[in-house]
Amino acid sequence: MAATDISPSSREALLGVAFVVLGVSVAASGDAVAKFLGQDLPVAALVWGRYLFSTVVVLPFVLGRIPLVQFLACATWIEALRAISMLLVTGAYFTAIQYLPLADALGLLLLYPLLASALAALLLDERVGLAKALVMATAFGGALLVVKPGFATWNVGVGFALAAALAVAVNIVITRHLAGRTPIVVGLLYSNLAGLVLSSPFVAFDWRPPSSAEWALLAALGVLMAAATFLIYRAYGSAPTATLAPFGYSEVIAATILGYVVFSDFPDAASILGIAVICACGIWIAMRGRG
Using CB atoms within 10 A of its CB, is residue 208 exposed (0-12), middle (13-18) or buried (19+)? Predict the structure, then answer.
């Protein structure tokens, strides 16, 4: 089929898929930086630094481009809820990866596409058929194979990773609801400013001046997370949640590679099987489209 034969809605869906895959891959890189920094810095400092430098990145795209009246008009309670949910994601997940291997923490976080699709079906009236629901349940089983929560010693990181997954799902549904209402950069700035303000009291209680190298890595963390959030916000403004959600699983590929290269962690046979199940389910759902 020629590119000109693709309908506008299909092109938007394909664009959304590309954005979400790129976004989660960038996010995995940021997670690796956060895990590395967490060996010496407290989680509160990671969260604060992430929002500080993300704000610096996003601010120029708003100043002089978005009228103040429009910026203030976007300051709604639901925008505040989106910002808070993202802060909860950041704090919970950065804590989880200090206790769990990167791939294991991500395996639990990967429940968020399933949770987002379920929430979207309930709150946004996006259709999820029986066959798709069964396949998504199978993907959940694949996630359990990756993490093996029933066979490993309970770790506080598991609870934080599950909390992060739920917060991501809430954030995605809110983003889908706000698509076309709030400019992406405005939503990003609200999220970053809220995270910076709300995390500042916590970092003040456990502050250690970072070294020059740590400041550089904190800056990289902020840039990576700002880019990832922008790409994911853009993706969910292009296509329905149920269409894009399975592609969130592609993050496990980047996380597995980074975990091996940076932290010498590699999935065992059960985890590899789980990853294969997740990917197969995601491909099936993508081929079936919205039905």
Answer: exposed
